[in-house]
Amino acid sequence: MSRFMPELLAPAGSLDKLIVAVLYGADAVYLGGQKFGLRQAAENFTREELKEGVDFAHQHNSKVFVVLNSYFHQKDFDSLKDFLLYIESIKVDAVIVSDPGVIQFISEHTNLEIHLSTQASCLNVRAAKLWKSLGVTRVVLGREASIEDAARIKKEAGLEVEMFVHGSMCMAYSGHCVISNYTQGRDSNRGGCAHSCRFEYSLSKDSADKGKDKEDLEKRKHSFFMSSKDLEGIRVLDKFIESEIDSLKVEGRMKSHLYAGTISKVYREALDYYEENGHFLSDNMSNWESELRKITHRAYTEASLISPADDSSIYDEREHEDGLYTSIGSIREVSKSHGFMLLEVKSYFHPGEILEVLPFKGVPFEIEVTFVKSVSDKNLEKTKPGTLVKIPYYEGVERFNLVRRRNLQ
Amino acid sequence: MKKVIYFDKEMSIEDIKSLGINEVILSTSYFSRFGKLSKNDLDNALNILNDFSGIVSFEWDVLVRDSLFDEMIHQFESLDLKRVDALRVLDPGVYQYAIEKNWDIFLMLDSGPFHNPLAIKSFIGLGKDLVKKIVVSIELDQLELKEIIDQLNIDTEYLGYGRILLFYTPRNLVTPLFGNEDKWIEVSANSEESPHKGFPVVENIHGTFMFNPKDHFVLEFLDDINDIGINEIRIDNRFLSHELTKELLKFDDKEFNPKDVKSALPRNVIRGFFHKNKSDALFKKLKNYRIMRQDKDYLGQVIEVEKDHHIGIYLRNEVDANSIRKVLLVTPEGKEKSATPHQIKDFCGDDFVNGGYGDIIFIPHISGISVKTNVYLDISNT
């Protein structure tokens, strides 16, 4: 039986991460060029990388969406036309935009499909209709919208809807936070967000007016009160599917290869399971949740997916690594005949350690690293990040598989 | 220069008339992000404003989740707004509603981040001739403002004095710390990780709002504002005493002394981005452009270096051994080196013949080359 299944849309902060996300099961990836996006500090894609990324994704039946979702000042338009014509020529599948001026510019100069970015905080049917009248075919809804809202918006506005299913969250309505602009001199709506919402603040009921703040340190309450927990939607995946949400988006272009691979793999497996069985009545759900806890994350919340996010969605803690698993690296070459695999090292490890390989499909499995050699075949006692090492060949391991280590608790 | 203020319960119709106010905004606790007028206050205000010959506008600037929209419309349509001339909107959905209802519209782009003429014109175009005024963003500097306003054939309003809203969330962030005694709670926040202190933070029925420690004040630049073509100045008096509001409203009086007024204001002030917005200037420092690949002769990136032995290159293009006669290496520090590899091996140690994307090849070690160095085919002298 064929049933409606949403698209799984993963972040691709670099070409390597695109490859990882696609190989681990993403139906589509979103990425940024060197300008026009909201992640100015990310590696992002050069033009040549964009073409390679699109070609690779299309060869694997995945789509590529390019973010152009900063809010433009006039000078930002200078090189936009040239870039648009280029990405249209390499057959990018859609662009993700916030600014109505950019939407109009794209419509005038290209036939690119336009998706409205979550940065525009589209939250209701009427707003969706308005954006549709500008030429938008899909809205990435604000994270404050529930799945029920999204279903109604899709039905009544008559366009595709995309929702975030996993990842970090802005505490503010997207596009409505300018803390960085005024405190760091960096425009958050043009990619300069300094994540001030993750800072610790001390709060007092004393007025901030001149001479009124008593600076009574005893009375001040210290808190990370503006920091949000991370979104996790795996438990309500059936509601996304039954509500026919068109695309499920994972946040995280700045995050690691292991994150891109793990999230893509887990949600791919969950969606495939539902497609085959029509339910999630299975032990697999706890396995998928367990996998999602192995990547670096803040505490999880379902935020506003079902009902408005409440106090429990605040992550009142300093950012820290929870350290369940460490990313060891990725397999770059495999040679059965020579009996070794070439691993690009992200974190150190020793010969004799047990590592875990994350296959593109199926259950992660352990390998024992009985030897570690340099490329020049010297035995190594310990690896260094940023190097290539030879480790023993294992059946079932493929190029670009990710390798991790369970940490001692 | 026309003057726009918020209705203040303490202000009489005589005050409003004598201070030359052109527009009074009704900012209610239900429809405005940080308005305080109750339904009764609104009715009283509308009675008072019956004798006012200027514009009366109604502010609906909360963002609206779909599940709340019908109830808000129900509440809105139950109000007696015959005296109201225009609706001030921020949410595109409320804008769409106003278009459907054929309201005159004051489109607020103050907190909406539209910062180019095309964006503003295309948004105005959706409302056709219903949009009577644009509230322009305080993040635009004066040159940008002039460029935009020159292209608009419509009234424009700019914030002369008021709080700068930095952050708006529907979540309740203050009551978890201070309890929930009132529908409106205001605290001050100090950053523990930057020098910024004294952010006013308000929580009310719409969520939580953080403001800049210093308020926006540009009333001493009236000539510049006139030159730009802005024709209305708004004084956001919602956090200001009645007396100070009256002082501020004399901004076009020859006797107006900005220095004296500023010293009397409850909080320090800034002119924000009015003279120059350079908030994109730091972007080029956020990453190392030298490690980006540049052109079609790109071969790949150095993925490993073993001193006195080899350099591993991660190929990003189809290539055969014959074409790699000479290479140009550009390090992350920007140093360039040319080299002629006398041997090229594949990852198994065999002579490299040809390969493509994702393959790794090894050439003899070259001093001064580090991981993330970009490697190009050097075809200059081959």
In a few lines, what is going on in this structure?
With 409 residues, chain A is of the alpha/beta class.
What keywords describe this structure?
heterodimer; A: 409 residues; alpha/beta; TIM Barrel; Elongation Factor Tu (Ef-tu), domain 3; 2 domains; eight-stranded parallel β-barrel; seven-stranded antiparallel β-sheet; 10 helices; 25% helix; 22% strand; B: 382 residues; six-stranded antiparallel β-sheet
Overview of the structural elements:
- The complex is a heterodimer of chains A (409) and B (382).
- Chain A contains ten helices and 19 strands.
- Chain A has 409 residues and is an alpha/beta fold.
- Chain A folds into two domains: 252 residues, Alpha-Beta Barrel (TIM Barrel), CATH 3.20.20.70; 82 residues, Translation factors (Elongation Factor Tu (Ef-tu), domain 3).
- In chain A, the strands form three sheets. Chain A has an eight-stranded parallel beta barrel, surrounded by six helices. A seven-stranded antiparallel beta sheet of chain A has the order 16-15-19-13-14-18-17, with helices on one face. A two-stranded antiparallel sheet of chain A has the order 8-9.
- In chain A, α1 runs parallel beside α2, α1 packs parallel to α9 and α5 packs across α6.
- Chain B folds into three domains: 218 residues, Aldolase class I (TIM Barrel); 49 residues, no CATH class; 89 residues, Translation factors (Elongation Factor Tu (Ef-tu), domain 3, Beta Barrel), CATH 2.40.30.
- Helix content of chain B is 21%, strand content 27%.
- Chain B is α/β, with parallel strands linked by helices and 382 residues long.
- The longest helix of chain B has 12 residues.
- In chain B, β1, α1 and β2 form a beta-alpha-beta unit.
- The chains are: A alpha/beta (409), B alpha/beta (382).
- Chains A and B meet through α2, α4, α5, α6 and α7 of A and α3, α4, α5, α6 and β8 of B.
- β8 of chain A pairs antiparallel with β9 of chain B, so a sheet runs across the interface.
